[in-house]
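Following up on my earlier thread - several people asked me to post the actual chain instead of describing it. Fair enough. Here it is, all 172 residues.
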Amino acid sequence: FFSNKFLKTASLILFSVSSVSLTSCLDKEGDAVEPTPVAYVRFYHGAPDAPDFDILVDNQRLNSQPFKYNNYSNYLRFSTGSRKFKFTPVNAANAYVDTTLTFKENKLYSVFAVNRLQNMEILAVKDTVMTPAAGKAGMRIIHLSPDAPAVDVATTGTNSTAIAADLEFKEH
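Reply from S.P.:
Thanks for posting it. Predicted structure:
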């Protein structure tokens, strides 16, 4: 009634389906791969007299192009915990800054290279994301000018409003 070739093909298909269904029964709930916890970090070059530099994270170069003054990155995904950071001259080993930062899961951070080259340092700020009320805007103000005195920030116009007063270098 059935040809020998048909029976062999049907047997092979039946065997394949049954072996797949049997192996799926061997999966254990505890075997699921847990997602790696991440934090989100962005970088800013805010050191006015510092040349372009490279950013190394755990001794791996992060940027593909020299990181220039006033450059910034989008948020990048980082493994949580302590991470070693170096800000170095382009394609060099010596570091302007060599530090360790610790990141927590699902948190946002901004990392600023600040101050003059001879005193360059890192300012790490934990970011908060808030949705402003309808018709309003949100902003973050950080004083990054190392040689400027404390500043006041205010809106202009007929209804001038003070936003920040006596903001010192690195304050936000």
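The two ends are 85 Å apart (CA to CA). That should answer part of your original question.
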